[in-house]
Design brief:
Elements (H helix, E strand, L loop, with lengths): L2 H11 L4 H8 L3 H8 L9 H15 L3 H13 L5 H7 L14 H26 L18 H4 L14 E6 L5 E7 L4 E7 L4 E6 L2 E6 L6 E4 L2 E2 L10 E6 L2
Antiparallel strand pairs: 1-4, 1-6, 2-3, 2-5, 5-8, 6-7
């Protein structure tokens, strides 16, 4: 469910018309309709848009973080450069300008190569001419690591918390947005999960979920399927405790 669709659904769940919501929020009805159609261009900028979302959330009884997090995912995030998005999610190392090699280093390397080449020529020349000096040229190479040493170990999965609550959500039938917290209110995840994607949470005491498309997901708790949690497009609030 998109942010605009969620705003419209939250308004109707609160039994408010666009005109009624406009009156209690002082937001023009035309702008409210634009926002419900995922058009935030006329809000006057991201700061004003976030202020409108906080205002609407307070009047329809929705946690403002849900609106704001979806705004970041759907509206502001696509405008960021792809490298910045990857860096924020630790997918790639931050880009750095390649270091320039000093001409002094290049000159020193060239000089060293010439000295080695000249020395080798002298040694081979003495051997060819039957000189008294016997020279042995030894070429050494850095030992290569064995396959077992160079192989990168596979990243192990996070261990399950014994005696805690382990919740896995799979968007098996459609894309959904998800807002997850623990018993202390710490945000574990906020954003969209595309169809076929999944998220797992391991907490000692409690996992709280707010699912935007309850009918499109499957949820298991401590390895057991909990069954249907709602219909397609329905917003479901779920809490799972340890034991």
């Amino acid at each position: 469910m998109s942010l605009g669709a969620l705003i419209a659904k939250s308004r109707t769940d609160a039994r408010l018309s666009v005109e009624e919501l406009s009156k209690i929020t002082n937001i023009p009805g035309t702008l409210l309709r634009d926002m419900e159609n995922n058009n935030f261009a006329k809000c006057g900028g991201e700061t004003y848009a976030r202020g409108h979302l906080r205002n609407i959330a307070a009047k329809v009884g929705v946690d403002e973080r849900i609106f704001l997090d979806l705004f970041e995912v759907e509206v502001t995030a696509p405008a960021k450069p792809i490298r910045e998005l990857l860096n924020e999610n630790n997918v790639t190392m931050p880009y750095q300008e390649p270091k320039r090699i000093s001409w002094k280093v290049l000159a020193a390397g060239s000089a060293a190569a010439l000295v080695l080449f000249a020395g080798a020529q002298i040694i081979f020349s003495n051997n060819d001419n039957g000189g008294e000096t016997d020279a042995v040229v030894t070429l050494s190479a850095s030992p290569t690591n064995s396959a077992s040493e160079s192989a990168t170990p596979s990243e192990s999965a996070s261990p399950l918390i014994t005696g805690g609550v382990n919740v896995e959500l799979v968007a098996s039938r459609g894309t959904t947005w998800l807002y997850a917290t623990n018993e202390n209110g710490k945000v574990l995840f906020s954003g969209q999960i595309r169809k076929g994607g999944s998220k797992a949470f391991n907490e000692a005491k409690q996992v709280n979920l707010r699912v935007g498309n309850a009918g499109g997901v499957d949820i298991s708790v401590n390895g057991k399927d909990v069954g249907s949690v709602g219909a397609n497009g329905e917003v479901a609030n779920l809490t799972y405790n340890a034991n």
